[in-house]
Amino acid sequence: MALARHIRLVVKPLVEIPGVDDVESALKKCNATGLVEIDEDNAVCRSTADCSRNGGRAVSDSSVGNTAVDSVRQECRSVARRDAAPAKLHRETLVWTSHDGITQVRFCSDQSEFELTGTDVKPLDEYTIVAFYGSVERGCEDVLKERFVSHESATEALMRLTGSFSIVYVSFRTNTVYVFKDEIGIRSLLWGRHDGVITVTDVAFGKQTEWYEIPPEFMITIHDEIKVVNRGLTMLQKLCHQSKIAYSVLTIDDVNHAIQLVYDGIASAVVELCDSRSIRDRVTILFSGGLDSSLLASMVAQHVKDLECIELVNVAFKPKVAPDRITAICTYEDLTRIYPEVNFKLILVDVETEEYKKVEQELMARIMPNNTHMDLNIAAALHYAVALKGTVMQPQFIHTEEWQEIKQNVALMKSINLRVTISKGSDTQTNNEELDGGKDGTCENEHSTDNTRKHDRHAKTASDESDVVDVLWEQLIQLRGSVNAADEDYTSPSKHVIIGSGADELFGGYGRHAVAPPTADVSFSKEVNKDIRRLWKRNLGRDDRVVNAQGVTALYPFLHPSVIRVLTHLKLNAATVVDALECPEWVKSLGVYQSLQYSTFKNCEFLHDRRNREVAIYINKWILREIAVRIGLKHCVHFKKRAIQFGTRSAKTFNRLRGMSNRVASDKGATIIMNNDL
Question: What InterPro entries does the database record attribute to this sequence (predicted)?
Answer without folding.
Answer: Asn_synthase, Asn_synthetase_domain, Ntn_hydrolases_N, Rossmann-like_a/b/a_fold
